[in-house]
Amino acid sequence: MKKNKTALITGITGQDGAYLSEFLLHKGYNVHGLKRRTSLFNTDRIDHLYQDPHEENRNFFLHYGDLTDSSNITRLIQEIQPDEIYNLAAMSHVGVSFEMSEYTANVDGLGTLRILESVRLLGLEKKTKIYQASTSELYGKVQEVPQNEQTPFYPRSPYGVAKLYAYWITVNYREAYNLFACNGILFNHESPIRGETFVTRKITRAVSKIVLGLQDTLYIGNLDASRDWGHAKDYVRMMWMMLQYDKAEDWVIATGKSTTVRKFIQLAFKEVGITIVFEGKGKNEKGIVLKCENPLYKLSKGKVVVEVDINYFRPTEVDLLVGDSSKARNILGWVPEYDLKDLVKEMMECDLVLMQKEKYLKKGGFETKNYFE
Ligand code: NDP
Ligand code: GDR
């Protein structure tokens, strides 16, 4: 009988880690995940997969660890002997990386080296395949569009620069030691479990709160930034497909369509029957209600619901990303199942439910107890 494959996922508690765990478990893998010790639970996204240590035939395991801790990583890889490692762990917020540049370099750059070096030290070069979570942030300053595997890199943030190191050290270990190590150059991908401070989720949460009367205004940064947004579910499938291909290579994954932050806000409001227009320029630009066609929501014409806050601007910005994933589409046969409309719809549906819950709790007097009173 064929033995089930074993995968190790770093960053298992994040958006992609959760979708990838689901995907690999359905494929019959034993899934091991690295999770950080935190003072509050950080496993919300994977709680439905948790298996009690006393259960028999477990196939989902969590281990404490951190990408800054080499001995921890080496020991875990030695114990788990993974067939595949998906290195998804990272300080993944571009804006925050300007505040925490050294830490970002340590985790996102050196963390990748620690994994590659452990696999080499343990003599697992022939057994263990590695997926490195590379990013469209590598392209940074627009030099050409659409961006493909040959487009030169010009990162524009400490996050992008750290990921550039990770990209090249992955290529170097592949060439120097014959490791099966791939870079997935993934463009932005979102979902209802996207972190709340990334712009799409910030928007769908705020729009849901605004229509339910829980918040007045969405404060936002650069409305002109344009991103190639796909659905995380479609993208984690590709991580796996890259490791099943007979050669270790680098792959761009993207929808090929770019949309501005401004347009994303309009799409989110449209999803609940509200038309928004933007007026003014630069930091004085505002999003104003033109029409509210949903009888459930009482937003009057002329109400200002979006305002620009320059604190959300970045010292250096990536203006335009649009990916050309024809290599993955032609060779691996990738066809995304979601388009932007499906994505916005799903995110809005989920956030509306969450915010309705919040509203009912507030109304019923069940707000979280203040322990400091
Ligand atoms: P998330 O921010 O949702 O998840 C990041 C994960 O990394 C979390 O599990 C987090 O743990 C963990 N982590 C952070 N720091 C450390 C550390 N020092 N040691 C161990 N684990 C750590 O990111 P996504 O799921 O969206 O992205 C996954 C990967 O793909 C990241 O590397 C990201 O940079 C990259 N990427 C993402 C894209 C996207 O659009 N989503 C596009 C291209 C690349 P905790 O839960 O405790 O915070
Ligand atoms: P990004 O995603 O930087 O592309 O990195 P994010 O959603 O943070 O920003 C996208 C664009 O929106 C602009 N923006 C704002 N961003 C945030 N977060 N908050 C705001 O209020 C706001 N207003 C405007 C940003 O300036 C930017 O131009 C994501 C991460 O998942 C990375 O880990 C990943 O590598 C890349 O996608 C591909």
Low-confidence stretches: none
- Radius of gyration, in Å, reads 22 Å
Main β-sheet description: 7 strands, parallel
The number of distinct helices, counting runs of at least 4 residues, comes to: 10
Mean pLDDT: 97
Strand content: 15-25%
Label the structural class.
alpha/beta
Principal-axes geometry comes out as: globular
The kinds of small molecule bound in this structure are: NADPH dihydro-nicotinamide-adenine-dinucleotide phosphate, guanosine-5'-diphosphate-rhamnose
Q: What is the H-and-E element order?
A: EHEEHEHHEHEEHEEEHEEHEEEHH
Number of extended strands: 15
Topology of this protein?
Elements lengths: L5 E5 L4 H12 L3 E6 L24 E5 L5 H11 L3 E4 L6 H4 L3 H21 L7 E7 L22 H20 L2 E7 L2 E2 L8 H13 L6 E3 L5 E2 L2 E2 H13 L5 E4 L5 E2 H10 L3 E6 L6 E7 L11 E5 L17 H7 L7 H24 L10
Parallel strand pairs: 1-2, 1-4, 2-3, 4-5, 5-6, 6-11, 7-10, 8-15
Antiparallel strand pairs: 9-12, 13-14, 14-15
Helix pairs in contact: 1-7, 2-4, 4-5, 6-8, 6-10
The chain binds NADPH dihydro-nicotinamide-adenine-dinucleotide phosphate and guanosine-5'-diphosphate-rhamnose (GDR).
Summed up:
Residues 8-347 form the NAD(P)-binding domain. The chain has 373 residues and is α/β, with parallel strands linked by helices. It has helices at 15-26, 70-80, 94-97, 101-121, 158-177, 199-211, 232-244, 261-270, 326-332, 340-363; strands at residues 6-10, 30-35, 60-64, 84-87, 129-135, 180-186, 189-190, 218-220, 226-227, 230-231, 250-253, 259-260, 274-279, 286-292, 304-308.
